[in-house]
Prior knowledge:
The complex is a heterodimer.
Chain A: H1 3-15, H2 17-35, H3 43-61, H4 65-87, H5 92-111, H6 116-119, E1 125-126, H7 130-135, E2 143-145, E3 148-150, H8 152-176, H9 179-189, H10 191-196, H11 201-227, E4 229-230, H12 237-250, H13 256-279, H14 301-319, H15 328-332
Antiparallel strand pairs in A: 1-4, 2-3
Chain B: H1 3-8, E1 21-32, E2 35-46, E3 50-54, H2 61-68, E4 76-81, E5 84-85, H3 91-96, E6 99-101, H4 114-121, H5 130-134, H6 140-156, H7 172-185, E7 190-194, H8 202-217, E8 221-225, H9 229-235, E9 238-243, E10 246-251, H10 253-257, H11 260-267
Parallel strand pairs in B: 3-8, 3-9, 6-7, 7-8
Antiparallel strand pairs in B: 1-2, 1-4, 4-5, 9-10
Helix pairs in contact in B: 4-7, 6-7
Amino acid sequence: MNWGLIFSNSVYTAISANAIAYMLVATGLNVHFGYTGLLNFGQAGFAAIGAYSLSIPISRFDWPWPFAVLLVIVSAVALALMLGFATLRLRPDYLAVVTIAIAEIIRLCLNSVRFTWLTGGNDGLQGFTGFMEKLNPFPQQGIWLWKQKIDGYRLWLLVSGWVLLLIVATLVYLLMRSPWGRVLRSIREDEDAARSLGKNVFAYKLQSLMIGGVIGAIGGMWLVLDKQSSQPGDFATTFTFFAYTIIILGGVARVKGPIIGTVIFLFIIQFVDIALQQATKTTPTDPTPVLPTWLIDQNNYAQLRFMLAGFALAALVVFRPQGIFGDKREQAFDVH
Amino acid sequence: MSIDAKSKSFESVPGSSKPDAILVVDNVTRSFGGLVAVNVAHLEIPRNCITALIGPNGAGKTTFFNVLTGFDEPDSGDWEFNGSSLAGVSAYKVARRGMVRTFQLTKALSRMTIIDNMRLGARGQLGESAWRGILRPLWASQELENTKKAENLLERFNLGHMRDELAGSLSGGQRKLLEMARALMVEPEIVMLDEPMAGVNPVLKQSLFQHIKGLRDEGRTVLFVEHDMDMVREISDWIIVMAQGEVIAEGTFDNVGSNPVVVNAYLGSHHEVDIGGQS
Lengths: 336, 279
């Protein structure tokens, strides 16, 4: 077992550009669910819109990248407005149903043969990361994080991603401590009370949906920049549920929550995965794996990581229901 | 003219006209399926008075409140607040125009601190726009003012020591107080209280009576729904009785208390006999 590699690989996974994408998507969801109480089950839809609003214009129509980034924001706002006008005047449950449906519709359209000329269908789109490679100030050979190599492009995405994340998290923090954020929290607690005090609940929900949606779309953009390929499969509902897991893990309605939640979530999954991979591996010089084959072998260890992640989450909910950074006092009055 | 004299000059019949009424209701009906919950032909609420709305359970008092404040839509009817129609106006706009309500089942914002509950009520907050919210200096001084105002109100309602607790930790009675104090942060012209005394202890009740009278002295109008006849007797200038959705009587307490229709529908024939525990 190469513990050095297992450990450094898991650490890298937890802070990589891919992790930053999860952090951004979960931060957006935290604005919706954590602060405003909107049950958005379609955050993957916002991420998909972000990813494809970047990749389609660049790889199909050769747009300059700043325009594509602008389109990412515009289309996320458009999706938020559409969802909002369709559902926000109805009971909160409808939002959950409609968002999950819209996210799936988006994914299925991106995947469909009919739109392959535009979206690349199941194969996805490639060749839209040229601008990021050009902007990269780091040498191509990259660096070593102990035993994990990080190439120049990924290092650039990692560094610029953390800067971007820091800016986004600071903005969210500033917004949430302002009277604006107070209105959002009051809507989460009781929207009729907010109304009775003269707050335009609908407008605030719409704003929350837009801001969280744009953050989610930027997350989706970062995800495909890291993969250097947009594929519909990355935006299935599991993505949304991972984001929920992350914010519950880190602490709902905390700015740090999605960030720390992602680090823990991805670290556990990657650590279990790569440790089991090594423990079941056989080589010509060493034909007996560390773990006996009657217990587990190369073909079935992959499923175990999500089982263990599930156990970890269950244990957290039992022993620390407020999440890592949550406020224990709030848990006592949680009526949802 | 003193308030007493003023209210005695109103005619004690359902739908009587009052000079300079703050709220005028015409033909408001609301039905749920076959049940007619509210059917008010004409009603005027006197300005700068404390008016009680009483009646048996299911008389339509809360539904009437909901309709007036935009939380429910009537089947028909119109009502004017300060001379402008409020029919079809959404609840938050009603509040902004100066008509603020509380709820029978209190709506304390549990996972927010008590001071934040109060601050939320303040009107015209600059920081409530997302753009300005990011820049603290733009709203910091206004926030300080609002906080001072909120602290004063909390002291008045005996909640000052709870300032930084979460509202969820308050007792039922304290939540009533918080809700009332929060409504006052909006600086309403008319305060609509839905059973403000339910669950409030006798000592606090007495001080609340003073607060409510104080609101009138500040020039505000109070309309409240209440079953506590002590409160109705003690502080109301005018009483409106509803039963089965209709206004069946209006008048001062003595007037209404001796009205056989009201005794029949609501008070019961033994209402003047002290059965203990009430006072």
